[in-house]
Task: structure prediction
Amino acid sequence: MPADDHLRGMFDEYGAAPEPTDSQREGARRDLYAAMRLEPVLPWWRRRTVGWGAAAVVAAAVFAFVLVIPTSTRAVDANLAEVAAAARTVDQVNLPAGSYIYFRVESTTYQENETEDGRKISYQLPTTEDLWVLGMSELRQRTAHRPEFSSSSDEEVFYTSELAAAEGIGETLTQPLNDIPNEESLEGLSTNPDRLWNRIVDRLSVDPDFAEDDEARIFEHVAQLLGPRLNAPPALRGALLEVLGQLDVITSKTPDGGVVVSQSYSNDFGAYEQMLEIDKAGHLIRDTLILTAAYGSGDIPVGVIQDIRYSGPAVVAEPGSFPAP
Amino acid sequence: MENVPNDGEAIRASMSRPEAFEPVFDRHYDSIFKYLSRRVGPDVGGELASEVFTVAFAQRHRFHDDAENARPWLYGIAANLARRQARTWRRSRRAGQRSTGGNVIWLDPAPEDRIDAERLREVLIDAISQLRSSEREVLLLHALTDMTYREVAQALSIPIGTVRSRLARARRQVRGILEAGGHPELAAELSEEGDADAG
Result:
């Protein structure tokens, strides 16, 4: 008999290893559900698989373009160029050592859900998240609010089934997280828009499915780099906006000096328009995704499926504290 | 028959559908609970077992992409949490606070029908306490779970040869302590070197 079996036997002299009780197991399961609800995920409608046909056409066009014309001659959208220039002049926010970046995320997200007895319902779920970020650690506080339903029957099913509790409506969940991967780090990013473009393409090329002409992925990556979590410095925000301005986007100025940038893409589920609102300092303040055409089963309603509003990043000394008004 | 995803498939699916992670919990929660209960007692062990799965979920991008079985990875997280708990208890004791735990392994109070059981229990705990932490970790992971040497190596991110050498040193030392403590019969049991585990 292996020696460790004897040791195991000695341990068992003091009774077999205790089994978890049902309440311990279910408590642990609830903790896991809470962690799942707290995590921002990449839902199906964010997966940017460009159809093969469209990809081939775009790839051929961009391939020719890249062969003939150097990247630096790409034209930058005038509205984005203007906001980029303004963003570069903004003072850098000083972040003392040990301080936290705070920001608030208010979002409404289209959800499809199914009860245990198989009834499918859909609703718009509003949530508020407060986040305090320090390097790879963060404290996240999330509150789920009462959903909006397109039918009273869906609303009745929601509140009479287990779904209301599963969504944690009215609850505020607090979760400290450590060692969060910082896949969208600012490290190594240039404030020169051409070098920045190449760096972003290099990063995305780690994914074998990425093609250099995949503007939808570049757009998405720039949106993440502009988000409040990373608190990109002004010169980099300016360069990121100039990268956006080199993509095939539509822009319009906002009354307060910012810009709205929109881009269309499609995947197996439908066609989409994503709109980013950038304020005059170059901060991303709103990210809206609209389903413009549904493919497949067709039971996904066309319209806004996610609308996220960000407060600008602020510096606070402690997690859980709020910036002065 | 329903096709149940293996751990690797479930974890990969959970990157876009968080709820896909649940089979990993269903498959491993009880064994992780038992291991941690043995390490730190059933109360704290229950809390840590829950934490293992929230940590694993938050860090699932670190799970080795082509692995099918998450067991070594989960035990690695559990071992880290048990060590963290031990550090907390040590700090509490240094600070002069009462600590409800602190042994390197948790064993039930002695059964009433064994007169010398309580003393034996102390000897065993003492023997394991005197091991280097790196050797103790390997010994307890192997003795308290049914993991192979290879899985222990994966759990602790060390080479399999290191697992073997640490186990050999740990057994030798526990044997010596048991002999010195007046338990040669127990030491003799541990002297068997029938190592059936090819890793």
